[in-house]
Specification:
Blueprint (H helix, E strand, L loop, with lengths): L1 H12 L2 H30 L18 H29 L1 H25 L1 H16 L1 H12 L5 H5 L4 H19 L3 H21 L12 H13 L13 H5 L2 H30 L5 H32 L4 H26 L3 H15 L6 H8 L4 H26 L6 H25 L10 H22 L1
């Protein structure tokens, strides 16, 4: 009895759901830490014409094209595991997929400095492998949300994914400090070690469902399962096979895929290229570069938390339908940054305006957590990982494409006039994403999500047909 009381007291202090939220927040922070460390480190890894350098680390004779190929190679692997990762998480669970991907990516990160000294092509392969393992992690979280989080609370949980922006915000100044103090190799050793430690904690603390958790109280387990059963996602029997044809021909699914692709294309362009833009155009030193580059990510995470809280409140109040809520937040999150990029295209030579514009644009874009990013759980919770995997596959091509576009536009010279073309491309991409979602998006549960849903609709149709015959008779 004493042991039971102690366990109950501990879980009252920190429930298993709270532990899950904390680990997911840290997981996405460290996920992006492993991804963006190269974007800040590479600025110091390449030899420059100036002789006023104090770093003791080796520098490499990489061209601007080679630098962008290194940044883009991440997406070669990333694109391969998005869809398989989401589907695999639906089958074997997110615990293995997310945790395993993070562990292997962390080990690869530790090996990166050695790869740089071996050969440029070894770096490309290693970065592609990093993308391969991290690619499976993102779509894996949605199937976990379907089992742990009630429908009316899912926007807040999905906001945890935007902790990736918080991770990027913290990684930038930390990497800047490490580079200026110790040298660029320390960036990969430190971030890799942090990722390994998190992976060990993940496997010890997180489980795929309340039913599988060995330390959850009966009260918390019943509360979670009853709330999910009350929601639309819980009243379903998952089909034994994936309805691929219905998924690929679904307008609401393509609304998520296309809008996500447009939004993430723009986001990756900022993530990968903002440090270089500040270095070449605004002429910040590496330490200042890291601090100022982090501001947009802090803003995005702040809005993600605010918007998800508001969305869940609106849904619980019943004042707005799921469709209206998702469309409103998506339009706000995707179209507003597009307007801000117009300002950047005209006034981007001013460092203060640039910092304000990029901070504001990513701040507003954080509201996607209450929009299309949660929408897969609305329309098909049983296949939310598959849908998000499809969406992230397209966005991965966009991430690679953005590095190639910037490389082509800035190959001959790094001037604001060349970068202006990049900003106008972002304007058009943001606008396209917002328009597509307005036309095709919905919050309605799709009948192909479950066997019971299709059967229910068929039964509702049959009496109508019978009544029509009686009238004709």
């Amino acid at each position: 009895m004493a042991s039971s009381a102690k366990t109950r007291k501990w879980t009252d202090f920190l429930t298993c759901t709270q532990v899950l939220n904390i680990m997911v927040i840290l997981g996405f922070m460290f996920n992006y830490m492993l991804r963006v460390n190269m974007t800040i480190a590479v600025v110091d890894m390449i030899k420059k014409n100036d002789t006023n350098t104090t770093t003791s680390s080796t520098r490499f004779d990489w061209t601007e094209t080679q630098k962008n190929d290194i940044l883009g190679s991440f997406f070669w692997g990333y694109v391969l595991t998005e869809l398989p990762g989401g589907r695999l998480a639906e089958i074997v669970g997110a615990r293995r997929v997310f945790g395993g991907g993070m562990l292997l990516a962390s080990l690869i990160t530790v090996l990166t400095p050695a790869a740089c000294h071996l050969n440029y092509y070894v770096v490309l392969v290693l970065r592609a492998l990093l993308g391969f393992f991290l690619g499976a992690t993102w779509p894996a979280i949605l199937p976990m949300a379907a089992k742990w989080i009630p429908p009316m609370e899912r926007s807040k949980f999905i906001a945890n994914m935007m902790a990736s922006s918080l991770g990027a915000a913290l990684t930038m100044p930390v990497c800047g400090f490490l580079i200026s103090s110790i040298g660029w190799p320390s960036v990969f050793y430190v971030t890799g070690a942090v990722g390994i430690l998190w992976s060990v904690a993940w496997f010890l603390l997180v489980f795929d469902s309340p039913a599988q958790h060995p330390r959850i109280t009966i009260e918390e387990k019943l509360e979670i399962e009853s709330k999910i059963a009350e929601g639309s996602g819980g009243k379903s029997v998952k089909p034994s096979t994936v309805p691929w044809l219905k998924i690929f021909t679904s307008g609401p699914v393509w609304a998520i895929i296309i809008t996500h692709g447009c939004s993430v294309f723009c986001y990756f362009t900022v993530v990968n290229q903002l440090p270089s833009y500040m270095d070449h155009i605004l002429h910040f030193n590496i330490k200042k570069n890291g601090i100022l580059s982090s501001l947009p990510y802090l803003g995005k995470y702040a809005m993600a938390v605010i918007a998800s809280f508001l969305a869940d409140r609106l849904l619980k109040s019943g004042r707005f339908s799921t469709t209206t809520t998702r469309k409103a937040f998506t339009t706000f999150a995707v179209l507003t940054p597009g307007f801000l990029m117009i300002i950047q295209a005209f006034l981007g030579m001013d460092s203060v305006i640039t910092v304000v514009v990029f901070t504001a644009s990513l701040f507003f874009n954080g509201a996607v957590t209450a929009g299309y990013l949660s929408n897969g759980l609305d329309i098909a919770p049983n296949f939310s990982g598959t849908i998000f995997g499809m969406a992230n596959t397209l966005s991965s091509f966009g991430g690679w494409l953005s590095t190639k576009i910037v490389a082509i536009l800035t190959k001959e010279e790094q001037t604001f006039e060349q970068w202006r073309y990049v900003f106008w491309i972002l304007v058009g991409t943001y606008a396209t994403g917002a328009l597509v979602y307005l036309l095709l998006g919905t919050g309605e549960l799709q009948k192909w999500n479950s066997v019971e849903e299709e059967a229910r609709i068929d039964k509702e149709m049959q009496p109508l047909k019978k009544n029509e015959k009686e009238v004709l008779a």
